[in-house]
Amino acid sequence: MIPHEMRPLCLSRMLWFTGILLFICLSGASGNTAPRFNMSSAFTLPEDTPLGDWVFKLVAMDADGDELYYTIEGDNANYFAVDHRTGNVTLNRKLNYEEKRTFLVDAGVTDNKNVMVYKKLTIIVTDRNDNKPIFQDEPYFTDVSENTPVGSPIFNVLAVDDDSANAGRVYYSIEKVNPNNAENHQLFNILYNGTVVLNGSLSYNNKSTFYRIEILAKDGGGLLNGAFIYQNSTAYLSVTVVDVPDLDPQFLGEPYIGSIPENSPLGTSVVQVLAIDGDKDVNDIIYYSITNTTSLFTISNTTGVISVSGNLDREGVPGEEVQLQVVARERNLNIYHQVAQVSTIVTIGVTDINDNTPQFYWCADYPACNFTGSPEDNFTGDIEEHASARTPVADLNIAAYDPDKGSNGTFQLYLQGPDALAFSVSPQKIVNEGVVQVLVRQPGLVDYEKKPTMTVEIVANDTGKATDCCSFATVTIHLADINDHRPEFKKSDYKLSVLEESPPGTVVSSNITATDPDSGLYGEITYQLLPASILSTFTVNEISGTILVANGSKLDWGIRSVYYATLQATDGGNLTGTTQLEISVIDINNNAPVVTGSYNVIVNEGQDNIIVEIQATDKDDPDTNNSRLQFEILPGEFSSNFTINPDTGVLKSKGPFDREAIPLELNGKVVVTILVHDLGIPQLNTTVNVTFLVEDVNDNAPRFNSSFYEFSVQEGLSGVFVGSVEATDADQTDINNRISFLIVESSVGSNNFLINSICQTFGSCQGNLRLGPGVEFDYDRMQPKFFNLTVQAENSDFGGHVDVDTAVVIVNVLDVNDESPSLVPSPPQSIEVLENATLNEVVAVLEATDVDTNHSLLFQELAVICFKGSASAGNVCQKWFRLESNGSLLVNSTEIDYEVCDLVELSLRVKDEITEMGDPYSKNETLKILIVDVNDNPPVFLNSTGTFVAIPDYPVGFQVAVVMAKDDDSGVNSVISFKLSRVVFISDTGLERDYENLFKVQTTVEEDFYAGSIQVASNLDGSLKGRYQVTVEAKDHGIPPLNSSESLDIFTVDQTYRVKLEFSATLKEVQDNSNAIEIALRTATNSAVYISAIKEASSNFRASGKTVMEAYFIYKNGTALGDELVTKFIQNSPEQLKQLLGMGLLLIGPVDVTEPSRDNMLLGVIAGLAGCVLLLFLIMILTVIGMKKSYTRKLKSLKSLKVASTFSATPMQQGPAIPGTNQYNKEGANPVLGFTLDPIMDLGFEENPSFEVASLNSLDENMVDASESDPATPAVKHHKEDAQCQPNDREEPLKAALESHKKAKPKPEGLNRIANKPILNTTDV
Description:
Blueprint: H1 7-30, E1 36-37, E2 42-46, E3 54-57, E4 60-61, E5 69-73, E6 80-82, E7 88-91, E8 102-110, E9 117-126, E10 134-135, E11 140-145, E12 153-156, E13 159-160, E14 170-178, H2 182-185, E15 188-190, E16 195-198, E17 210-219, E18 222-224, E19 227-229, E20 232-242, E21 250-252, E22 256-261, E23 269-272, E24 274-276, E25 286-290, E26 297-299, E27 305-308, E28 321-330, E29 341-351, E30 359-362, E31 378-384, E32 398-401, E33 410-416, E34 423-426, E35 429-431, E36 433-440, E37 453-461, E38 470-480, E39 488-489, E40 493-499, E41 507-509, E42 514-515, E43 526-530, E44 538-540, E45 547-549, E46 562-570, E47 576-586, E48 593-595, E49 599-604, E50 611-613, E51 616-618, E52 629-633, E53 642-644, E54 650-653, E55 669-678, E56 685-695, E57 703-704, E58 708-714, E59 721-728, H3 734-737, E60 740-743, E61 753-761, E62 764-771, E63 786-796, E64 802-814, E65 822-824, E66 831-834, E67 842-845, E68 847-849, E69 857-868, E70 871-872, E71 881-883, E72 888-891, E73 903-912, E74 925-932, E75 940-941, E76 948-950, E77 959-966, ...
Parallel strand pairs: 2-9, 11-20, 22-29, 31-38, 40-47, 49-56, 58-64, 66-74, 76-83
Antiparallel strand pairs: 1-4, 3-7, 5-8, 6-7, 8-9, 10-13, 12-16, 14-17, 15-16, 17-20, 18-19, 21-24, 23-27, 25-28, 26-27, 28-29, 30-32, 32-36, 33-35, 33-37, 34-36, 37-38, 39-42, 41-45, 43-46, 44-45, 46-47, 48-51, 50-54, 52-55, 53-54, 55-56, 57-59, 59-62, 60-63, 61-62, 63-64, 65-68, 67-72, 69-70, ...
Helix pairs in contact: 1-8, 5-7
């Protein structure tokens, strides 16, 4: 009896087991179909797809509507994660185009009722611009000789970009050159292949000796994370300039000027010249020499010291200086195999010493004297006795000369000798040379009657010493006798008077006479009034000496109250005697005041407190008002500048004079008119002009007319006039207002200009600014484009004080179009053009630049080269594009085709139409035009010559046909997916029937095409006779997608052509020889052999030991061989027959084929269901009986297990349930055995959904029949006979578990006792 508490458990287990059996029976009878995929077999994924993103979806259909379970398997399955319910696939591992561009995965789907259905998916990874160009073999260093020709390659750099297409193309450019300036940036160029080329000249001395070039490697750009980006990297090339001997030496410290005293000893050093090698890093040895002929100086060839080598006499050296031409020569030849040398002029002045005494020379014509004759020391001259003082002695012709210079040639002259007191010498000091005269000093000592001949000695002294100093000349003077007795009056003066306005002839005096002791002619006396001006008023009788009035109207006391005259008596020898006459005019008051003298006063500018006293007289009687005088200043231009004392006539200035305040036309003259009047009635007056001549003082600085000037000069010109600045000086004399201009040296670029002064008008000068000789500006390379000069105007008063003014002069350099244009960027970046671009579409606008400010640029197309891949495509692309003169690139053709040409290289250049000088063209550039593929080509099926055959025994997934197609597009546009659009069966009788899901197609990627493998998708009907017409559609992945289709025929071979071959060998032997058997059969029949089954021959009771092989023999034309033809062919092939007989071939015959009708199939299903129900009741009855019989034993076993568990040393292990036992899944222990079974022990019966498990009499006897196609399952036969009748070589599972446990570890003593009890016999369980 079953205990009450166990009944529900036993009943539930019994019902569960019964339900499983019923489900298995119903499933076998219902014919559940497997799911099938309904999706593309190829997917394109960018490599930058983020992890976790949805990438595609697995889509399958199940005709029974069962819930589907999806999976992805294969070596590359770890790239994806799949939602097993929805089929959504996300990216689980990062893609990398550079590592793997395409790979396969197996997509699986199952409905958990049929075997897993697989579909191969092709994953195409597309490239993204995720890699930078990487420079190879860094760092970069190179040495370049300074004379390397322009255009020479100096280094090669290489950058590699692992990306593909345009993103993997590397373009190089030079970003920066240190030292960083415009000239250095153009000094180097880099070609498309990474070759760095010298683009300008190097100079070790005049330019930098080291350059650091920053090179940018940039790819052609591409998509990354949804954006179009460019990747780049930077490398640095260090260029060291190597000096070569290409320059002449250079003198330091020029100009060389020295001096040395005359008569210096031989070997005396004068000056040292120094030259260095112009090539700083070569530093060759320098030798010196003097090239012009001289005997006075020599030079050390190694040190450059110039020393005295001859007798130096300043007086013998023309110009008092010697100019030497010194050559400095390098020891070694330069790179041109020439002598490297340079010359300079050394000027040596010979200074004077006092080594000559002055000498006297006879010189009739002094300016023409050259003092080359012999000096004289005796001279003779003549003079009259009693000659006046400072009268020179005649006919001496004396000249003195001292060849020394300066103070050494300056000498003093004086007289000595017996008559030295009577004469003097003139001049008393002479510098170098001069005329010497002897003058009368004391006329009284020159007396013929006392001494007719006189002698003096002239002394010339140039040292100031009393001895060893002088030269001497003796002068002999001959006196000439003269009439030396004069007439004499009794008195020396006489006072006379006469009324004013006395009539002519009035006798003033008649008794004044003279006497002369001389006799003869010298004693005869005649009278004469002196001066001659007195004769207009008075006259004298020549013989008697009577004084008379000559013109009474002139006797005006007011004008002249006293006349002074000299009465001269002359003898026959023209000697005279005189007496002074004072003739007083008696006043009648009729004269106006008379100013005495004229007043011209010279004063210095700025002089103050100037006083001038005006003197005036009145001829009227001084004792009356008629002769009393008053002074005043008449109004005038300068009257306000003076004051005058009205009584004394003292004129004073109010302040200092300013020469510049005086009008220029007055030439510094200030005139003040003074009125002098008497106090008589009527009042009489007179005027006098007082003239002040103001001497100019340099008290005004020059002033520029403008403080700012701006001029312009064109680049490339030398020595041209730039502009003029003007300045004025308010000073009014030439010496003070003459202006000199100079450029302040601190001005940047001042050494490029010269300025000279031209004074055009009084006090106004002009400074003409011009470029220096050899100075040319380059507008494009200079920075800034102007010069900021400070020009200074100055004058000097020759006393050391200099007044200056400054002005700013901006000289703008004007650009001349002399530079070639260039493309920007250079080289131009590649462009992409779709092959379906529209006509006249602008695909690019090129840009160019010209450093000239004024330019007109035109683009010119030079050549077009076409490529397909790396090979030439001929001239197919010549007219595809048109380059406009403005740089616009237009589509010129509708025939652009990526498939014939994918790269167009357009050679072009830029021309500057208004270039004035130089090359108007840029360098030739190449524009790469990448033709981008568009989806304009549908897939094209490739010809297939095979015939396809289907036999009923083909398993699901077996390939029955292959189609091939290719797409001329590229990239994703060329990816092809196949699908079956229609399957129609056409019977031999002509009837047609559509089938679905009978075949499937799987797309695979081959080397240059795509293949579509047409496979069996469900079991084929072996009774059909005819052909399947399968329409295959090939569709690309472009946008929009293009497709094409092709139909093919698959001929059916029905089961009547199934041939049976019986062998005497065992099943294993036939299986082992199956390949050899197939080859022999194929060779004998010349057909394709398909083996559908290998099984043991049928026997009612036991194995017969024979094996049957069933096979089809098919030809490519769709026909098949029957058993008779197969037999015939084998018999006609003795060698193959022998082989087959040796492998046990017994007979060949047909296979019995029964074609069930629909009624028979229905009856079979009903019979199967009835059998299942009967079997279910039988099992339930047997189960109840067995449980009742062993209930008592099981209860005892449970009690024993409880006791035994208290002795267990190890905890219970958990593990999966073990088939064939009652082990619980959670507890991990068999309640019957009472100990834990090892869950990892392989008992040889894995659970598999594909196994059909038959439960026979008890849980201990299970038989698993597996599909023959599953290699993971042990080779267990699957026959229609009962499982009990089949041999079973497996060990009983529970027994194996017990034995394993015994070997694994010893049991506790109590447990061993329980295990040895009879109640635990496995048969009972």
